[in-house]
Design goal:
The protein is mainly alpha-helical. It has three helices and no strands. Helix 1 (16-45) crosses helix 2.
Length: 119
């Protein structure tokens, strides 16, 4: 068998356990955001009653994350009519990509980065 020389790590940023734990926290956080926005989109498509406590809670929670995209497109939220919000769809994609990107960044600085296995 050929001998594989391992490159020494210059500086270990975080342990593998803390990197994986942080990646899971990021996934859960951004997953919650994406789920709240997706629920908002479905409720808006089916003309859910905004005076219902569940619908009002979903709208209030997701509004925090969707509002910057309303400003970006110069739109305002519409409730009580069947609508497809392009701002919500853009926010959904943005937060999914942001969560994925942060997770990849965290995992790329783990102790396994740059290690060659095999002997």
């Amino acid at each position: 068998m050929a001998h594989v020389q391992r490159r020494p790590m210059k500086r270990q940023m975080m342990s593998d356990v803390s990197a994986l734990a942080l990646a899971r926290v990021i996934y859960v956080f951004f997953g919650f955001i994406a789920l709240s926005i997706a629920t908002r989109m479905v409720l808006l498509l089916f003309e859910a009653n905004p005076s219902n406590w569940f619908v009002a809670t979903v709208y209030a929670v997701s509004k925090i994350f969707v509002m910057p995209f309303f400003v970006l497109f110069g739109l305002s939220p519409t409730y009580g009519a069947s609508t497809f919000e392009i701002s919500s769809m853009t926010a959904f994609a943005f937060y999914l990509l942001l969560g994925w990107g942060l997770t990849v960044a965290v995992l790329s600085y783990g102790p396994w980065h740059g290690v060659v296995d095999g002997d």
